[in-house]
């Protein structure tokens, strides 16, 4: 990122001119000549001049900074890696702070990776939505979180089946379980009923239990017409 | 000197005229207009030479074949031939198995074997991947095993769990109160302690594993043959032990494989024979001359593996235990597990020595369920008082009458026969580990990953029993 900034400083005098130029160009176009044309000119210039590209990045970063100023998380800012990809040292001050929620959606976490999550003894909410490597074996590892886990979401995991859901009965403190959109579950409606029976204190979300049930009256004439298979 | 046309000595042992007529016949058969008998179709026969011949194509035999090919020093280094008598596997223990895997054993070696097998099954699509073939779905249920112990077995169970935890198995001990809390459908009368496997335990589809192994092993270049081993030809060597006692060492150099429903056989020259014939291993051992000698000597020690019939019953019980049900093994020896989503269960019970059924055929004894299995199930799970048996089947255990544990490794006298049999009902779950151990023994000369030296054949002669207490 050093070079663009350098170039910006070098061409500082001309920069002002260009800004005015852009605005002039923008103003010169008739109002209905619309946003689209304004953006295309800027885009066109961005494609041709490194300096304009750097300028655009700078303006964008200014906007983002303003947004982040507004976002706080429990009266602390989000801790992010800096421009070199390193976390700041004050991250270590949070060693003792218990992690209460983990959102691992769309993550490539696998069986061995769960080692890291299972040590979080105060974890209350875990989201493993659309994780492509989470399967029945991984679900059998979740029992250490039984004391604290209250919310679990497995929506959209392609490898989770009803056999893995059977291991969730260890999680007796679970209050909300999301099992929507699990393609590997053979009978979603029946699975929903069985999981609800297994976890009486938990709200199981995501499947309509009437799914897969045939509507009675329309089917009957068909049944009497066709021969009963042996 | 006039040439009479008769040559003796270098040019032939027989008469010249006979040879000429033979040559004339061959030339005539090559010419068009005659049927050509020179090259006969031998595609159904096994090859004439093979480095390793594996007798038995079940899960243990295929596992040995797989690891031999995985661990060989360079690709195509050894030729492996798997001889299986029945390619439909109608009586093979693998397909008829209940398919359970658990680490709750008393011997550390058994625990390590099961732990390795669990990780093998978990990563099965990395081990058994074949180009352009769909991935395997083992239908693994990670629901665990629940073993119940009465007062007199509670102490043994505690020490077993200690050993299991030392080896890395995740097993938890539960009191009757905790048991009732967790599984309200259990009647804890007579139960003093229970051990529950939390991870890496459950049941899976053994057919899927078998077909996956077969597919992979064929893609690695292992040859298959449907036939029966009828004879071993071996050469003997007289040697002296360090105590100056004479001992006869045998080496099998040829295996006769008889084709199905025919008298035709193929002699296969081989270097190593693996006995993975399951319930019929003792017949194969007898063919090699193991056990022919005065009793009490090493020559006279037979392979103590015999077929034992076990029945499995499938029943339907609408109010039965829910989705969380593990494979429950009762104090009486009866066991059951869920099958599928529809309130179906399957289970059975190992009969006592007096009750042992005749292993001549695989017919199910339904009276056994009525009299000896159902009462125990109904006592343990009151909901099972009303159940309806849907179907049943029977299969063989390759039962080791000596100590109910497997036999692995070479025979001390027939030096190139290796055993991989006798696992008495837990062969399926230990097959990946055992296959690797036998392959290491064959290729490297010693066990490298899991030390199975307590399972060698010599223990039968020396009388060193390694008793496994947790047999279901």
TrEMBL record, chain A:
UniProt-listed InterPro entries: LRR_dom_sf
SUPFAM superfamilies for this protein: RNI-like
Complex formation: Interacts with incompletely assembled mitochondrial NADH:ubiquinone oxidoreductase complex (complex I).
Designated gene of the protein: DMAC2
High-level lineage: Eukaryota, Metazoa, Chordata, Craniata, Vertebrata
Domain of life: Eukaryota
Record function comment: Required for the assembly of the mitochondrial NADH:ubiquinone oxidoreductase complex (complex I). Involved in the assembly of the distal region of complex I.
Family as reported in the entry's similarity comment: Belongs to the ATP synthase subunit s family.
The protein's name: Distal membrane-arm assembly complex protein 2
From TrEMBL, chain B:
Molecular function via GO: oxidoreductase activity
Gene Ontology, cellular component aspect: mitochondrial inner membrane
Matches recorded under SUPFAM superfamilies: FAD/NAD(P)-binding domain (SSF51905)
Cited InterPro entries: FAD-dep_OxRdtase, FAD/NAD-bd_sf
Keywords assigned: Electron transport, FAD, Flavoprotein, Membrane, Mitochondrion, Mitochondrion inner membrane, Oxidoreductase, Respiratory chain, Transmembrane, Transmembrane helix, Transport
Compartment(s): Mitochondrion inner membrane
Domain spans labelled FAD dependent oxidoreductase: 51-441
Cofactor(s) demanded: FAD
Membrane topology: Single-pass membrane protein
Top-level taxon of origin: Eukaryota
Main function: Required for the assembly of the mitochondrial membrane respiratory chain NADH dehydrogenase (Complex I). Involved in mid-late stages of complex I assembly.
Subunit relationships: Associates with components of the mitochondrial respiratory chain complex I.
Protein name as annotated: FAD-dependent oxidoreductase domain-containing protein 1
Gene: FOXRED1
